């Protein structure tokens, strides 16, 4: 009986550890220049790739903004609901080989994500090599 309870407790702890040790979930974006929270992005997996969509904008005055500078099909679409992280794949402890869209400038950058603990996500957008870019730290929404 003690063995069964121990095995069950171990299984439950592994399941909970695995759920929090992934980029999938809701994240509060923090502007690296102002330090202010801007939005909530939901990161999800589809067909083995990672995507992220803006599900809330924290500044009430910007909730109805359009992506006027965005390229292609995203031009003039609402920022709320916009998929900004596109096609990342897991590579060891990082997710890379995809793109991130800056809805303010409309520019598309190469991107990588890396967890820092369970509740912090390092998001780097860059041009060419990762040396030339910006990094934001996002916080998991509980």
UniProtKB/TrEMBL annotation:
Q: Tell me the leader sequence span.
A: none
Q: Where do the DUF2147 domain residues begin and end?
A: 25-140
The family database entries (InterPro entries) matched by this protein are listed as: DUF2147 (IPR019223)
A Pfam family (short name) is DUF2147
The organism's superkingdom is given as: Bacteria
Matches recorded under PANTHER family: BLL5882 PROTEIN, BLR1215 PROTEIN
Q: What is this protein called?
A: DUF2147 domain-containing protein
Species assigned in the record = Flavobacterium yafengii
């Amino acid at each position: 009986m003690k063995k069964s309870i121990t095995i069950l407790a171990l299984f439950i702890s592994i399941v909970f550890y695995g759920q929090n040790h992934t980029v999938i979930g809701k994240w509060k974006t923090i502007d690296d220049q102002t330090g202010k929270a801007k939005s909530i992005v939901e990161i999800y997996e589809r067909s083995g790739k990672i995507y992220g969509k803006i599900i809330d904008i924290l500044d009430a005055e910007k909730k109805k903004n359009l992506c006027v500078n965005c390229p292609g099909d995203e031009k003039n679409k609402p920022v709320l609901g916009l998929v900004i992280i596109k096609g990342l794949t897991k590579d060891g402890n990082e997710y890379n080989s995809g793109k991130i869209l800056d809805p303010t400038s409309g520019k598309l950058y190469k991107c990588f994500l890396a967890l820092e603990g369970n509740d912090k996500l390092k998001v780097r957008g860059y041009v060419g090599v990762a040396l030339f870019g910006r990094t934001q730290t996002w916080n998991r929404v509980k």
